[in-house]
Amino acid sequence: MSTYQPQAFRMLPTAVKHLLIINVLVFIGTIALERKGFFGITNALALWSVQSGHFQLWQPLTYMFMHASIDHIFFNMFALWMFGCILENFWGTKRFLIYYLVCGLGAAAVNLLVAPGGPTVGASGAVYGILLAFGMMFPNEQIYLYFLLPIKAKWFVIGYAAIELFEGVFHSMDGIAHFAHLGGMLAGLLLILWWRKHPFRNY
């Protein structure tokens, strides 16, 4: 599978649209609540390690809708729209949403294994899973790195994974959850391989 039907393409399909809305609303709502004095909202919804004493069962889901800054949410949502729209049009809404959530949960699982404390926030793990899927579904599509340099999707994804692995090993204290990003990609890879062996027509 390496093509999609351009006549059926939607610029803002259902799942991507609602994920964008939810992330933006949570970001704005968190800022508003913190300005009202509810400073514990981030700690309650962000992902903490089990050892920290702040971990809650809902955090592996809620953390992926939280963001630390405008730059953080902008780049994650831009990538979600840019690559997610193509994948949702290609896969369908149900399959795409399952994939997105599995990648986010996979990123959380890896982060819980390697992160010393927390908190961790952001949709980056799920977004990196989307990048992985794009590279697998459309390996020879051209992506313009920094909007200038053309590179095939498969090399783009491999390059990003290599960078995250390097940064995770050698710059683990830079405040970025590099292994969570890799966890999202790993979860996405395993799910795609599972689907290829166990296809479901209702997706």
Describe the structure.
The chain is mainly α. It has 8 helices and 2 strands, in the order ααααααββαα. Strands 1-2 form a two-stranded antiparallel ribbon. Strand 1 (142-145) and strand 2 form a beta hairpin. Helix 4 crosses helix 5 (93-114) and helix 6 (124-137) packs antiparallel against helix 7 (153-170). It is globular, with a radius of gyration of 17 Å. The two termini are 15 Å apart. Mean pLDDT is 88; it is low at 1-7.
Return the CATH topology.
Answer: Rhomboid-like fold
Largest sheet: 2 strands, antiparallel
Roughly what percent helix?
Answer: 55-70%
The fourth-level CATH homologous superfamily is Rhomboid-like
Taken in chain order, the helices and strands follow as: HHHHHHEEHH
Number of helices: 8
Q: What is the CATH architecture assignment?
A: Up-down Bundle
N-end to C-end Cα span = 15 Å
Shape: globular
Short structural description:
With 203 residues, this protein is mostly helical.
